[in-house]
Description:
The protein is an alpha/beta fold and 151 residues long. Helix content is 28%, strand content 35%. The strands form 2 sheets. Strands 5-4-1-8 form a 4-stranded parallel β-sheet, with helices on both faces. A 4-stranded mixed β-sheet has the order 3-2-6-7.
Amino acid sequence: MFEIIGIGACVMDTLYNVPSYPAEDTKKRASGSMQAGGGPVATGLVAASKLGAKAAYAGVLSDDVGGEFLKADFEKYGVSTALTETKSGYRSFTSVILLCEDTATRTCVFDKGNLPPFSLSDKVKGKIAEAKLIMVDGNEMAAAIEAAKIA
């Protein structure tokens, strides 16, 4: 049984540390970069798992580089992907985030991708009914509303 099941945004973030924001139509060298999983639900599920909760993500992932990264990232932090569907031929939800050292601010540019909406299978519905908590974030609204009614 999963204690927490999350339905919502799951994003592959690419973060760049920059000393200051670049001017338009210029180049700027980053002082560092990394990839990380992001999105409100994904971040919440990882935090819950790190605190000892048995957590699962229920949603749609692509089989592209972003989707493979996100699935591996969830598994790295102990979040189950047993309730996800993997779809071929779609783009994952991705973002590029500039972290400005001078102002301690961030600027995010994102592409929601083109994955189809998540719909709850009978298996997922059964797991939601057993869970202690569902976590939603305003993405995948139809599935989130249906899950809330089940919970």
